[in-house]
Amino acid sequence: MSHYDLIIVGSGPAGRAAAIQAGKLKRRVLVIDRKDRLGGVSVHTGTIPSKTLRETVLNLSGWRERSFYGRSYRVKDNIAAEDLKARLHMTLDHEVDVLEHQFNRNHVDTLHGMARFVDDKTIEVATEAGEVTRLTADRFLISTGTKTYRPENVPFNGRSVVDSDEFLELARIPRSLIVVGAGVIGVEYATMFSALDVRVTLIEPRETFLDFIDRALIQDFTHQIRENGVDLRLGSAIERIEDASDHVEVSLANGRHVRAEMLLFAAGRMGATSALNLAAAGLKTDHRNRIEVNRKTYQTAVPHIYAAGDVIGHPSLASTSVQQGRVAACHALETPTLPESPWFPYGIYSVPEISTCGMSEEEMQERGIPYEVGVARFRETSRGHIMGLEHGMLKMLFSLKTRRVLGVQIVGEGATELIHIAQAVLNLKGTVDYFVQNTFNYPTLAEAYKIAGLDAFNRMPIPEAYKVRRDAAKPETS
Ligand SMILES: Cc1cc2nc3c(=O)[nH]c(=O)nc-3n(C[C@H](O)[C@H](O)[C@H](O)COP(=O)(O)OP(=O)(O)OC[C@H]3O[C@@H](n4cnc5c(N)ncnc54)[C@H](O)[C@@H]3O)c2cc1C
User: Fold this and answer.
1) Can the peptide bond before residue 155 be classed as cis, meaning omega within 30 degrees of 0?
2) What is the pLDDT of residues 66-76, one digit of tens each?
3) Pocket test for ligand 1, best of 53, 132, 305, 310 (most atoms within 8 A of CB)
4) N vs C: which end of the chain shows fewer Cβ within 10 Å?
């Protein structure tokens, strides 16, 4: 029976980062994944495929050029599912190739099969061919992520009623699409397919959506997606989903009916832990099959077993999973590392993009923090004119007491890239003065930071030290 320093179950972002870290520390490390291709949900059904699809849709549809050339402008006519899938497969193959190379270079062993605990020090791996291997380790990391939530009353058929994994196998682009669930995944796919001129109805049982985002931003976003053709139905509880031969029909509790060629059910995900036999290792899960951990070390209730990534719940992002995996591996292998920064960004790759970091205005109010707001519209920037941007907004929140930036919210082109400027200022405890003092490249969308900074600065009390003394302003002589 082989013995390892660290056995990792799941090769998604958390498992991958942990494995490479362990390899760099020259420890014996093994990654087990039930899928024959490494990379996890992130590479095969989540982050990378959805972002590749989005990029392909925006490129082929000519979306970014339409404000200049009209709504009917296309880079390619009659875009078909094959057009979307071709680029998808190329990107995924490349991602897997890079990952395999990273594992090889760092001497990370891999094993394909379904893992389950035998006891807290032993794991059993069953291959599809029926072979079973037993392995032991000093430490374990569970990074098995999540799987789609498939309630029994949804008539999934892999063709016209699908979950977000099956959606990627799209045989053809439907003329109309119902998306159930206005969470991040639902909003991304709904707006992406609306950009392809598919008639999209986005149904959300609750009255609000994306509640962790600033309401002013959501108002702007809602206005834009409705203008782009998404029929957003909030507060619409679903009574029944019926799969007729040529369409899908959703009956809503308010008595209305919605019909479409296809339905994407994107309301929730569950921890992928049911096959792990966690009880044998002394572990339990919550009502969504997720594992509780110490959020600093990522140790579970059994200290030599760690868990990281989506399997531990919020925030369930590839970006944060990478951080968690690396921190968990360092702790497990008794290697010092830096604590994680307090503020990480959320990126929602809808059309238009949304990205936020720090607090929303509602959160500032709840916490009773006196604040000032600075807002910039992308159309106020020269780069915005050049790009033909009609929408886009950047909003920053500053503490009136300390002048520190405490929250940034962006909706519009490039939001997920732009956010990192604010993230750096936030984590380095910078103030509104940073945006006023510093010069930004011109013309750029980043200039919106300067505009929003000045907007707030001009309304904030001026510190005594900043006040101008006329007699001090003498011309310098050389
Ligand atoms: C449609 C969609 C879009 C997304 N977009 C983004 C985005 O834009 N940005 C972002 O940051 N995040 C995004 N996410 C979230 C992101 O994909 C996840 O946060 C990330 O994949 C979680 O990584 P993980 O390390 O927890 O493992 P995962 O990527 O979930 O991988 C887990 C792996 O464990 C394996 N496994 C499970 N059980 C077993 C077992 N018993 N034995 C062996 N192997 C097992 C699985 O086969 C899988 O390969 C998106 C997710 C989805 C679904």
Assistant:
1) no
2) 888 888 888 88
3) 310
4) C
Ligand 1 atom having least distance to the Cα of 349: 8
Say how many Å lie between the CA of residue 12 and the centre of ligand 1.
Answer: 5
Nearest CA to ligand 1 atom 14: 47
At position 320, the amino acid (one-letter code) is T
394: left (phi > 0), else alpha (psi -120 to 50), else beta?
Answer: beta
Q: Rounded to a whole number, what is the largest CA-CA distance in the chain?
A: 87
CATH code of the domain made up of 161-267: 3.50.50.60
What are the boundaries of each domain within the chain?
A: 2-147+270-332, 161-267, 346-461
The reported pLDDT for the residue numbered 361 is 97
Q: Is the pTM of this model over 0.90?
A: yes
Cα(146) to centroid(ligand 1), Å: 6
- Average pLDDT of the residues in 390-415: 97
How many residues are listed for the chain in this entry? Answer: 478
Give, in order, the Cα–Cα distances in Å from 477 to each of 360, 472, 473, 474: 48, 14, 12, 9
Specify the CATH superfamily of domain 346-461. Answer: FAD/NAD-linked reductase, C-terminal dimerisation domain (3.30.390.30)
Is the four-CA dihedral 277, 281, 282, 284 of positive or negative sign?
negative
| Superfamily (CATH H level) for 2-147+270-332 | FAD/NAD(P)-binding domain (3.50.50.60)
**Residue 61 confidence (pLDDT):** 92
Question: 144, 193, 322, 324: which to mutate for ligand 1, most atoms within 8 A of CB?
Answer: 144
